[in-house]
Structure formats: structure tokens, C-alpha cells
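User: These chains co-purify. Model them together.
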Amino acid sequence: MENFNFYSPTEFVFGKGMEAQCGKCVKKYGGTKVLIHYGSGSVVRSGLLDRVKKSLEEENIAYVELGGVQPNPRDTKIYEGIELCRKEKVDFILSVGGGSCIDSSKAIALGVPYDGDFWDFYGTGKPVEKALPIGTVLTIAAAGSEGSGASVVTKEEGMLKRDTGSDLLRPRFSVLNPELTCTLPAYQTACGATDIMAHVFERYFTNTKEVEITDRLCEGILLTMIKETPRVIADPDNYEARANIMWAGTVAHNDIVGVGRSQDWNSHAIEHELSGLYDCAHGAGLAVVMPSWMEFVYKHDVMRFAQMAVRVFGCQMNFAEPEVTAMEGIKAFRRFLHSIGMPINFEELGAKEEDIPVLVKKLGIKDKTWGFQPLSSADAGEILKIAAHAKVEE
Amino acid sequence: MENFNFYSPTEFVFGKGMEAQCGKCVKKYGGTKVLIHYGSGSVVRSGLLDRVKKSLEEENIAYVELGGVQPNPRDTKIYEGIELCRKEKVDFILSVGGGSCIDSSKAIALGVPYDGDFWDFYGTGKPVEKALPIGTVLTIAAAGSEGSGASVVTKEEGMLKRDTGSDLLRPRFSVLNPELTCTLPAYQTACGATDIMAHVFERYFTNTKEVEITDRLCEGILLTMIKETPRVIADPDNYEARANIMWAGTVAHNDIVGVGRSQDWNSHAIEHELSGLYDCAHGAGLAVVMPSWMEFVYKHDVMRFAQMAVRVFGCQMNFAEPEVTAMEGIKAFRRFLHSIGMPINFEELGAKEEDIPVLVKKLGIKDKTWGFQPLSSADAGEILKIAAHAKVEE
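Assistant: Joint model of the two components:
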């Protein structure tokens, strides 16, 4: 096991009706003037925004609002948020929405106390030294941003999608009420589930040997997702299944299942170019990219893929030909994604094979990426070619 | 799933040589005058204490020392610590040792700013309102106290073992260096492993249905312990196995595997009377009590025990007679404990059947306990009778 630091100080407030705790939580963590940041009209229509405001008012906490965050959140909205916070002397940001809204909130949080352009921190590794505290009320189980220090946002000019990360961006608290996810359309639910599974897989495929505890925790989340996702697709109001998925989504990405070993974020990186170019859902892009990435890299460590096949997808181990088992696991993953309504190739996603050179160029790989199997630009192109033509196979 | 709060703000600093980070960590969390609290001479002989002091000196942090914490830590030492901290104006407590040392440190931490007797908080549910911050350097994987807000200590008069808990007692940081555990005798290592597994089982046996994510995470830790414990017993210097066990021990008890459902701490409660009366190792007492508790309660939810048998101990499901599978799992657990050198009955533990009435009386059950299956005093007596005569069975 490699040396590591694990630090996840976020207080998770989980369960039915918990958004009523918002005001108390903001107060506990020192907020006196809040920016409520949200996305679509659904948080308005559902009455959630009103409940959040009421909870703040009950604690006599002042607030201003900024809605309109889009999926793949844009820099333009972030600049607007930073300006508003400065003008209104906001000292706490409360995100009411999904991963995009949280990531936009994090960008605003680091931008407000910073003298230059917030974009300086994205895709550059520049360390964040100061940020406003944030809290979240989560409305979709997917990104895991409610428990992580990561933020991914998009520069509208050129549709560049880049990320940053810092412990300072970890939410002080996150309210997780599974009821809020019951009204999500099946497609969005499935996109979220795919994102959650991808967060685990990006940690599962490691070159560090013998980190059994992390393997087992990863497999536990994946097994849960395989059981619970079809249940919520079939029965959107199934609270128990929604609750399992929501908590799985948080645990999948606060890094408790990633410590002590190398990780691999190449599928995420490749996908970011797809959703950057086509503005598709991140989870949908992952459903197309990730099994294709697996097909391309599995020979790098056949036994690890065989372990996934056996432990996660219940395949029988072929001891004479472990490669067969490894491929069976990858096929099972793609079948699972198809079964929950995810696209699995370019046509289903709305992507075009002729764009592959553009996608690879935007990816901007210099020499090779890092990860389980470092990738060249040519490798990324091959993965996208597999993705373009992928099919469900028995 | 039941509503819950999950809050684990401790920073875990994990890996080889990490005790050198102590000074930096104390500084980061605001300590300026430290009480170094430790147990046996082994932290002195191994040079660990010197390395910790050096690390504090490098950051110009002043310290005083108090050694001599015993297993099942005593109130007498705690009073001594409280007095010393007040006299020396200590503002941070650094525990260098195992669970007993951490629990003693927590008692001192809450006792220093409190006007009355620190014992007021133990076994009473009285809420802790103030405590000095603490940090830990862990030397044995077992108690999980390095990541929890719990503390269990013993009043010498009458050997009463009682507990308290508060988020204020969660360590600010915990240094986990698996190398420090390589010199532990096999018996202590196995006691620690048993404690870790018990912490998971006390959460696994729940009356809350359908919390798949927590079940799977519990099973992941148990599977890890079953794989790694025999490896360290056979090869004490196996760093990778030591590392897996150490991290499993922390994850087993910061409650990440216990949220959203009822728990059951009756085995722990019964064991506390054994180690209180005989001063035996807590893990050894658990090895005797826990499988016996399982035998007594399994009919309360046969399918849950069958799930344990199949998923954790690899038993084949007997679909016609699930009770048979359930009992097979319990027997497999006891065989496992025996195989790692743990006592499994009163004789092996050094306990006496004729003491059962005394043990039950000290347990002081009024009406019934709470938990998976609430227990009366008579039930506790029955469990201890099973424990008295338990045997390894195929």
C-alpha cells in the first residue's frame, strides 16, 4: 500500500426532509450571508428552493440567489456568481442541485477571494489557497462532488472542460435527501448511476498490488449499484433503492475507496472531451467510453479484470483462460449499461466517428497520460474507435 | 434506510515513517503545549517515543509526558493526566499507543475543561460539551478509537468498564504507520483482528432492511480480515497485510459501515464484563462471546446469518434449510478465530462458569437491552453458558 492522507471532514446529513436542516447547518459552519446557487427550474417548481429559503430565514440568515447553472457548468455563470458575492459580501455558498451546481459553487468559492481569474486554477494544478465555505443540498446521485474537493467546469469559448481540486473545496456539510431524486427521469438516474460506477472503476484499476481492503470496498459499491439501479429504473419511487444509490454515490467519490494506490482517470478525461464537444450527459459519455477503455487496456493486467468479472459481475472463473473471463466481465458491464438505458456507442450518444481527430486533439495528450496504462494520443484514438462501433454482446 | 448524520473529520496520515509528521500535524491543529500520553515501555524501547518528541521539537512545540496507561485504562491514571494538563497548561493531547491509550487520552481531554468528575460522562449519556483536541499515533490495529468519538475506560474500584462518546472526542489527526505493528506478538495481533471484525459484526446485525450499501461495505472489511489476518500471523513482517488490517480497523469503526440502520452492541457489552473481571484482552473476550451470541440470536433473522455465511465465509446456500447455512457461518467464524490463536471458551480465556451470575449482575440489565435482539439478564446468562462450553466444530 502506498502512503496516503485521507481527510473527509464534510458532515453528511442524510435522509427524508433533511433540507429543513440547511439553516442550522449554515449557522453551525459560520455563514451569515449566503449565496443560494442553483440550476434548473425544477428546484423552484418542486418547492425545494422555498424550503431551503425558509430554513435559512428561520435562523435569520440573509441570502441572495443565482440560478441558471447548466449541465457542464459554464465560466460565464461563475464570473456572474463571483461578482454577485463580492458585491453582496456573501460569506457562504449553498449549492442546491446536482454535481454541476456544486462544481460551479466551488469555482465561485475559490474565485471570490482570489485577485486574478478563477480559471487560473483549472487544468493547471495551481494550488487553491483560500475559498469561501460551501454547503450543498444534493438533488441527484452522481458526481460525488458533495463529498469531494474536486470541481470540473467548462470554458464556453472553445468548450474547454477542465478540473481543479483542494481540501478547501470540500463542502462543510452536504444534505442528502433521497426523496429529492425520486422525480428524476430514468435517463438522468441511469447517467448518475454510470458516473458513480465509473468513479469506483477509475480507482479499481490500479497498478498497486495487494490493497485488498480498497478492492473489497470498491466491489461492495459496484455490487450495490448493480442491485439497486435496475430497481429505481423500474420503480422510481423506491426510497430504499434511491437511498442506497445516493449514499453509494458519496462514498464512491470522497476517496475512501481510492486510498493507498495508483488510480486511473483516463476514461473521465476522454469523456470530458465528448461532453465538452456534444454537450451530452457526462454519465452517458462514460457509458460509451469506459467499457471501450477496458477492452483496450485489459491485457495490461488480465487477472485484475478477471477479478472484476468474478467478484462484481458473478462470472465463473476460467482458470485455463483468464482472458476469457476478463472479457466476459467487460461485456457484462456493457450489457448492464445497456439494460439501464445508457448509450453504448457513438450513434446512440449522438457523436460522430469523423470527430475523433478533433476529440483527440482537444484532449491534448503530451507524450503519455498517467494511470493504470498510460495512453498516447494514438491510444485515445483507438479507444474512441472501439467506442464508436461498440455493440452489446452475450 | 434510517436518517443519519455521518461526520468523520479526522485527518488520517497513513504509511511508513509517518510519525515524523506528528509535529506538523499538532501545529496544523493549533496545539502549542502537548501532553504525550503513552502506555507500555515498548514505545520507549522501540524508539518511537523519541521520534515523536523529535518531530514536536522540530516544530518548537513544548510537551510533557505521562506514560503507564494499562490495557483497560484506569481512572486513576486519568485523574493524574487531568491534573498534569491543568498544571502545565496543556492545550493538545497526543496519544502514542493503542486503543487503551487513546481512550485514556479522550477521558483526559474531556476532563480537563470540566468542573466535576470526568467519570460523570461514562455510562450515563451525559453529553460532552468541551474537550481538548487530541491526535494519535497508533501502534496496534484494533480498537478503531483513532477514528471514532468513543472512549471506554475502567473505574478501578469495582473494575467498572463504561463508555462515552462525542464528536468532540474524534481525533483531529491520526498517524497510522503499519510498520509499528510488525513487532506485535501474534496473540495481540489476533486480538486486534477479532476486535475489528466484532466492530463490523455489531453493525452488520441490524433490524433495518435493505441497506445494501452498508451490508456490502461491512462484508468487504470482513473478507479483507479473513484474508489478511492469517498472513500476518504466519509472517509478522508482511507490510502489505499489516497495512490492509490497519486501515480496515479504522474504517470498521469510524461508522462509515454503520450508518442508516440499527446496530447491536450486546456482544461488546457482555465482553466488557469479562475483561473488567478477569483483565483479559478485549479481543480475546470477544472471540469467546461473539460466536456464542450469534448462536443465541440467529433465529431472530436466519436469512441475515445465511447471508453472512454465504457472502463472508463462502458457505454454499442451503435453500431448503437456510438455518443450516446460518449455523455453518457461525461455526466457520469460530473456526477462523481458533485458527488465528484466539480462545473460544471460558477455559481458554481463563474465565469461570461459576462467575456467570456475577458477570450478569455487573452487566446490570434493566428489563432488556436494545439492539438486534434485545436481551434480558437471563439471555445474557444463556449466552455466557454457551460461551463457557463452546467448541470448534466442522
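Chain A has a mean pLDDT of 96.
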